[in-house]
Design a protein that fits this description.
homodimer, mainly alpha, Arc Repressor Mutant, subunit A, Tetracycline Repressor, domain 2, flat, DNA-binding, DNA-binding (chains A, B), DNA binding (chains A, B), repressor (chains A, B)
Chain lengths: 217, 217
DNA sequence: TCAACCTCCCTTACAACGTAAGCTTACGTT
DNA sequence: AACGTAAGCTTACGTTGTAAGGGAGGTTGA
C-alpha cells in the first residue's frame, strides 16, 4: 500500500499506524494489518519498533509533533491560546490519542520538546516556576479533558438499539433526567449546535483567570 | 474468591471487575481471570454481561456511582467544589477509568443520574441553559483531564532503563529541555511535592471565573 | 402431576492477537 | 570475494474474546 519504494524506516511505520488508527480506530490497529498496509509481514515490523507498546508510544509522539509550538513573538496569552487551539484540533483529528496517553509513561522527544516550549513561553512571560506549574497543569488538563469528552460524545453511534439503550431511553421518557432532557432539547439539538464551540469559552475563562493571577500575584 | 454464597448477579460481577482492574490494571482484566476471582468459568460471565464492552460500560457506571452527588443545600460554588473533588478522588482511586471513558458511547443510569444532578445544581442556582452547558463542559473537562494526567505521571515506573529512556536522559543531560529541567529540579523534586495538590488551584480558578461570568452575564 | 421452560453454570472449540525463535536475502565495507 | 548487518520471511506458541451446545435445578401452566 505504501507507494514509496525502498526500505522502510520507523517514521513510515509510525505514520502508517497513525493513519490506520485514524481511519478505523485504535482497536483495529494490529501488527498484521499494519504489515499489510506497509506491504510487509507483521514480524518485520519488529525491525522498526521494539513491540506494540513502543509503537503506541511512537504514535503519541507523532501526534505531539503536529501541535503548533508557541512562536514566542506575541504576548503569552495569545501564544498560549493558539497553542491550545492547535492542540485540541490535533487531538480531535486523532481521536484515539487522548485516551492512549494514560499508560504511556515514557514521553518521546517531540513530546518533551513541546512541554519544554510551553514552559519556556510562560517563564519568559514572567511566570514564577510555581505559577508556570499551575498554569501548565490547568491548561493541559482542560485541553486533554475536553478532547476526551469530545471523543465520547456521540450519544449512540448508529449501532443497533441494544436492550440497555432502550432501558435508558425508557428512563428518559419517564422524566427521570429532567435537566438532561432540558439541555438536550433546548440546547444540544438546536440546528448548528457543535460541542466543539464550547472549547474556546472555557479556554478564555482559564486564560483570563491566569492573567489575573499573574498580575496580582 | 468471592465469599458470598448463592447465585451471582451483575452487580457482583461488575464490582469484582472493578476490584481486579484497580489491583492489576485494566490490561490484565480478562474474562478468565475475572471468572477465577468469582469462582466460575469465563463463559459463565456471559449470563450477566452481554460481552466485554458491556462489562466495561458497567464498570464505568460503577465508578460514577461512587462520586458524591451535589447535596443541594449549600450555595452552588461549594457544592460544585465538593462534587469536583469527589470526582477526582474517585477517578484517582480507579486509575483505569478515565482513559476508558473514551470509546464508551453509551452511558449507564448512574452516569446519567450524576450528570442530571450536576446540571440541576447549576440550573437551580440560576445558570441559564447555555451558561450551565459552558460550566459543565469546563468543569468536567478539567476534572477528567487532570485525572488523565495524574495517571500518566510517574516519569518512569521503575521499569528497566530502556534504550529509548536512555536516549531521553541523554537529551536531558545535553540541556535540550532547559525549562523542564528547571521545573523538575526546582519544583517537582522538592520534598513534599504532590502533583495532586495542583487540582484545587485550577478548580478554584475555574469556579471563580464561572462566578464572575454568572454575576455579570 | 408432569411437561415445558427459564436461568445459570459447564465444556469444547476457534479465529485473531502479540511476539519468540530462527532462517534467508541483499547491500555496504573492506 | 568475503563478511557483517539490516530488514525481510516463515513457523509456532500462549492468550484473548466468545460462538455453540449441553445439563442441572427451579418455576410455571395446564
Amino acid at each position: 500500500m505504501s507507494d514509496s519504494r525502498g526500505r522502510l524506516n520507523r517514521d513510515q511505520v509510525l505514520r502508517a499506524a497513525v493513519a490506520l488508527a485514524d481511519a478505523n480506530g485504535l482497536e483495529s490497529l494490529t501488527m498484521r494489518k499494519l504489515g499489510v498496509e506497509l506491504g510487509i509481514e507483521a514480524m518485520s515490523l519488529y525491525n522498526h519498533v521494539a513491540n506494540k507498546v513502543d509503537l503506541l508510544d511512537g504514535m503519541i509522539d507523532c501526534v505531539f509533533a503536529e501541535i503548533e509550538l508557541p512562536a514566542g513573538e506575541a504576548d503569552w496569552k495569545t501564544a498560549a491560546r493558539r497553542r491550545a487551539i492547535s492542540a485540541r484540533e490535533v487531538l480531535s483529528r486523532h481521536r484515539w490519542a487522548t485516551a492512549l496517553m494514560e499508560s504511556r509513561t515514557s514521553p518521546g522527544p517531540k513530546t518533551l520538546r513541546h512541554h519544554d516550549a510551553v514552559l519556556g513561553l510562560l517563564r519568559g512571560a514572567g511566570f514564577s516556576i510555581e505559577m508556570a506549574a499551575h498554569a501548565y497543569s490547568l491548561m493541559d488538563s482542560y485541553i486533554y479533558g475536553f478532547a476526551l469528552q469530545e471523543t465520547s460524545l456521540p450519544f449512540d453511534s448508529g449501532e443497533s438499539t441494544t436492550k440497555a439503550a432502550q432501558a435508558i431511553m425508557a428512563r428518559f421518557a419517564a422524566g427521570e433526567y429532567p435537566n438532561l432532557t432540558e439541555l438536550a432539547t433546548q440546547h444540544v439539538m438546536r440546528p448548528g449546535y457543535d460541542y466543539g464551540d464550547e472549547f474556546e469559552y472555557g479556554l478564555d475563562l482559564i486564560l483570563d483567570g491566569l492573567e489575573r493571577a499573574v498580575s496580582t500575584g
